[in-house]
Amino acid sequence: MRRNVTAALLLLFAACQGSTAELGKAVRAYDDALVRAYAAADASALASVATAKEMGRVQVLIDLKSNGKLVLEAKVESFEVARASTSGETGTVETRERWRYHDRHLRPGEAQGPDFVADMAMRYELVREGGRWKVASVSTISNEYLEPKGMKPAGAHGQGPSRGGGMNSDESPPANPAAPKGAPPTP
C-alpha cells in the first residue's frame, strides 16, 4: 500500500512538472510569435499562442506604431522561467527576459530609432483553450534598461512612447499611461 501511495505521488509530481514546463514553452512561443507579429505589423501571428483579447491588445499597439509610420523590430536575447504554476485550466508564469528592440521608420530616408536593451521580469497569465496553453494577459514586474544609458522604464513589450518604450528623466510621461502593453515588452 505504501509503495502505491509513493508511486502515485511521484506520478502526480511528474505530471505537475510536465504541466509547468508546458507553460514555460507556451510563454516562449508567445514571445517568439510577438516578435514576428511586430515585424509584420499583424497580430494574427499570435493566434495559436494567445487569446483573442490578448491578440487585440497587441494589435492596438501595432496600429499605434503603424499610424506613426513605425515598425517595432525586436529580439529576445535571453529567456528564463523563474516560476510557473497551474490551477485547473489556468496558469501563471514569471520570467526573466532580455529584449533588444528599436523602431524602424517606414518613411524613406528616416533613421531608425535608437536601440533599447532591457532586462525584464514579466508575469504571464495563461488559460487552456482548445487543448493548448494560451497567453491571456501580460504584466511587467520590473524593467531595467541597459541601453541607452540613463533610460527610465515607462512600460514594456512595446509600451510607452513610440520612440522605444521608455522615457528619459527629463521627459513627461505618456499622455495615456493606460496605453496597451504587448511586446518589447512585448519591450
Q: Helical element count?
A: 2
CATH class wording:
Alpha Beta
User: Any guess at the CATH architecture?
Assistant: Roll
- Termini separation comes to 53 Å
* Major sheet characteristics: 4 strands, antiparallel
The tally of beta strands, per DSSP, is 6
Element pattern in H and E: HHEEEEEE
Low-pLDDT runs of 5+ residues are 5-18, 158-183
Keywords:
187 residues, alpha+beta, Nuclear Transport Factor 2, Chain: A, four-stranded antiparallel β-sheet, two-stranded antiparallel sheet, 2 helices
Structure description:
This protein has 187 residues and is α+β, with helices and mostly antiparallel strands. It has one domain (2-168): Nuclear Transport Factor 2, Chain: A (Roll). The protein is 29% helix and 37% strand. It has helices at residues 2-40, 52-67, and strands spanning 70-87, 90-105, 116-129, 132-147, 151-153, 166-168. The chain has a four-stranded antiparallel β-sheet with strand order 1-2-3-4. A hairpin with a 2-residue loop joins strand 1 and strand 2. It starts with a helix and ends in a 19-residue tail after the last strand.
